[in-house]
Amino acid sequence: MKIVSVDPTSPLFGHVRPGYELVAINDRKVLDSLDYHFRTADECVTLRFSDRQGQDLTFTFDASHGSPLGLTFADDRIRQCNCDCIFCFVRQQPEGLRPSLYVKDEDYRLSFTHGNFITLSNLTRPDIERIIAQRLSPLYVSVHSTDDRLRRCLLRNEKLAPIIPRLKYVTDHGITIHAQTVLCPGINDGAPLEKTIEDLVSLHPGVATLAVVPVGLTRYRAGLTPLRVYTPEEAKGIIRFVEVRQVEFLARMGTRFVWPADEFYVLADMNFPSRASYEQMSQFENGVGMVREFINLFQRRRQQVANTRSNVRLLIFTGCSAYPFLNREILSHLRNSGGLNISAHAVVNRFWGETVTVSGLLTGQDLLAESLKLRNSFDVAMLPPNCLNTDSLLLDDMSLDDFRTAVGKRVIVGKYDLVESLREALT
Predict the structure, then answer these.
(1) What is the mean pLDDT of the chain?
(2) 212 with 240: CB under 8 angstroms?
(3) pLDDT at position 151 over 80
(4) Residues 61-81: what's their mean pLDDT?
(5) pTM here?
(6) Residue range 322-354, pLDDT digits in tens
(7) What Å distances lie between residue 27 and 219, 285, 361, CA to CA?
(8) 18: three-class secondary structure by DSSP
């Protein structure tokens, strides 16, 4: 592992330098940065480095040294997926986007550290034993179906090992799994979904939760497996089916176990469940309970803006799926206060296609086109918080600075705490 920086407070500062390699800890090869953090947690550690000339340097520390080692390493190579899922979003993209958008990650380390979903399809026996030995739990697993024949078709990988024995093995050894199934109309819903739920709930509490997520389709599907999105009536059917099982599981096991993603409630135009019904919010980042949390956070804090008066005309840009509940649950309260001029605008996703309705997949070009069309109707524009990356770039690599320059008006990036965003926008 190559060192890229050494913190000045590190006991190794001045002894090892950027460009040196960490060769071993306690005479065992270091696999990656996660392995480094695991092995340096021992009471006594001996680190062996190789300098730029290939000479070895060895340092030993015990728990009494008290200072973090302060080493930063080059990024680990991401393990990629060996499947070709019929609904893979990476394959539904045009050319010319940033390289990271084409990475089909299937890395159990990122599942543990970031909650990324994996299929367990590329795990070797040493990988599985490492997960158990280092307690890399919880993991987030895309199951899609527990019918192994159907699962191989969905993932287009005939070499897939049966999923239930693999899940049982890791859960029997203390690893917690949060699972998801991406539903495709007429393919893995109906009876296959019933089987998937029954098989997975049989592994509870090892399999702790299951999220049911609708398939997402872009307009870039030429030559791919024909798929369609759910209709509102079908979405209502999925919700009713899952909610019946929730009642059963809650009575039997003390947990609802399975949840429909927020997208199903948006599509069905149904009210979102209570905050308590989402229990521990274990699949929040997977879009399960996120809308309810957003609404509740606003309701708890809305009195802080109830008496605000401002002449600023604020326009909140959002995706088509968020617009109905944003307008109904949030803006209606703000308008009733009488002192604010706030409106929302649903941006149709022309880049990915109109079936993509989430705000996190809005591009700079679509947002800019709507901003320019409406620029005379607002003083401040608010962009969704999830449509920019940490470098303040939109999905098509338009920078926030360039966006602001092109609009010629004040533009802010919203927060999930809308009250905090309003304070910023109206000052």
Answers:
(1) 93
(2) no
(3) yes
(4) 81
(5) 0.91
(6) 999 898 888 888 876 667 889 999 999 999 999
(7) 53, 39, 46
(8) coil
Nearest by Cα to 206 from 151, 145, 160, 138: 138
Residue that the structure tokens 């192994």 belong to: 148
Q: What is the mean pLDDT of residues 367-385?
A: 96
Alpha-helical (H) ranges within 78-227 are 108-114, 125-133, 148-155, 163-172, 191-201
The residue count of the chain comes to: 427
Per-residue pLDDT at 427:
78
Site of tokens 């008066």: 309
Asked if the model's pLDDT at residue 65 lies above 70, the reply is no
Tokens of 72: 């930063």
Q: What phi, psi does 410 have (nearest 5°)?
A: -70, 130
Distance in angstroms (rounded) separating the CA atoms of residues 229 and 222 = 16
By DSSP bridging, strand 71-73 and strand 3-6 are: antiparallel
Greatest extent of the chain over all pairs of C-alpha atoms, in Å: 73
The SS3 assignment for 250 reads helix
Measured CA to CA, the distance from residue 221 to residue 93 in angstroms comes to: 8
